[in-house]
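Below is how a single chain appears once it has passed through the pipeline. First comes the sequence as given, then the structure the pipeline wrote out for it. We keep one example in the README because the format questions we get most often are answered faster by looking than by reading.
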Amino acid sequence: MVKAKKTGSQPSSLIEDLQRQVKRVKILHTEDCARGYGSVWLPYALNRKYKNADTEFAWQYVFPSTKISPTREDGKLRRHHTAGSTIQDAVKRAIRKSGINKHASCHNFRHSFATHLLENSYDIRTIQELPGHKDVRTTQIYLHVIKRGGQGVKSPLDA
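Resulting structure:
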């Protein structure tokens, strides 16, 4: 069982789902090891530093690919992480299935997440770090969306 440390940024509602996912991946990893495919590519000489780490469960992807494929670097057959395009396709299918007749993508979730954080008075530097914006000016664009300007902080008395 994975012990999840509860913090303000971690959605408690997902802990059980993630624990089930880790159990599924552990079973898959055990099966892959039995077939000779139970390793991941470890860059920057980590495999030399940590002998056999590439086959240890702790280094496996939480969301692995459904396919075994060769690694570009050495050609060895491995299970890699789920491709971004797989997630994007699943989101598009879910949107179509929901009957929402609007264009949407994973990128919309990034914008929505950042906007909601601003609406809930999180500081802009924290919001900048979460989606990985290099420049705070990129994050400041969201201030215009919520129409509060740079002074979008609510008084605790108004909360």
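The chain has a mean pLDDT of 84.

See the next section for the split statistics.
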